[in-house]
Amino acid sequence: MRSKMPMSALNFYIFKKQNSAEVSFTEKIVKDNYRYKQEIDDLNWEILPETKEVAGFLAQKAKASFSGRDYTAWFTTEIPISEGPYKFRGLPGLILEISDNKDYYTFKLTGFKELNDEISMEFNPENYLEVSREKFLQIKEEYAENPFVIMESSGITMGFQPGQKEKLLKEHREEFKKKNNRIELE
């Protein structure tokens, strides 16, 4: 089903229960699919009078803090769905655009597309290793430090030429240094 979904630069999926504060965060690390559940209460939004057009909709400004970052959101009551991208929710309309105050993270609706075929996203928790959020972050940190340990613990063995493993590990660590700005700081 995911092959029919629009592509994203993000390598995780978030499943939200309708009319519930529960979200399931899922991400594949090496060959294992991990999942943690989290209750996200409505954020303490400050709704401001400023408006602008976003993707053809009249949007109103709101501000809130979430997990160590301050965000500005633009939502529309023309679509009375109290949801948004990532884990954001709780405004009296769909969040069309949201970014943190340093513009490290920005989500913006660019438009709607009518699909020829219905996409049915069935979330089957059986396909994921359920861990706590803390354990998931630990696994990600271990993978960032040394992916070969995680690979070996997943049953993947690799043969290397002399010096090749060290070279690949150095390249991996350099790549991960570029990804050192997590969306959630707390």
Characterization of the model:
- By secondary structure, the protein is of the alpha+beta class.
- It contains three helices and nine strands, in the order βββββββββααα.
- It has helices spanning 133-145, 147-153, 164-177, and strands spanning 12-16, 22-29, 32-39, 46-54, 57-66, 69-76, 94-100, 106-108, 129-130.
- A five-stranded antiparallel beta sheet has the order 4-5-6-7-8, with no helix packed on it.
- Helix 1 packs across helix 2.
- It is elongated and about 65 Å long.
- The model has no long low-confidence stretch (mean pLDDT 85).
Average pLDDT figure: 85
* Main beta sheet strand tally, sense and closure: 5 strands, antiparallel
Largest sheet: spatial strand order? 4-5-6-7-8
Number of strands: 9
* Global Rg: 19 Å
Descriptive labels:
elongated, 4-stranded mixed β-sheet, alpha+beta, 3 helices, 186 residues
Could you outline the blueprint of secondary structure elements for this entry?
Blueprint: E1 12-16, E2 22-29, E3 32-39, E4 46-54, E5 57-66, E6 69-76, E7 94-100, E8 106-108, E9 129-130, H1 133-145, H2 147-153, H3 164-177
Parallel strand pairs: 3-9
Antiparallel strand pairs: 1-2, 2-3, 4-5, 5-6, 6-7, 7-8
Helix pairs in contact: 1-2
Sum this structure up briefly.
With 186 residues, the chain is of the alpha+beta class. The protein has helices at 133-145, 147-153, 164-177; strands at residues 12-16, 22-29, 32-39, 46-54, 57-66, 69-76, 94-100, 106-108, 129-130.
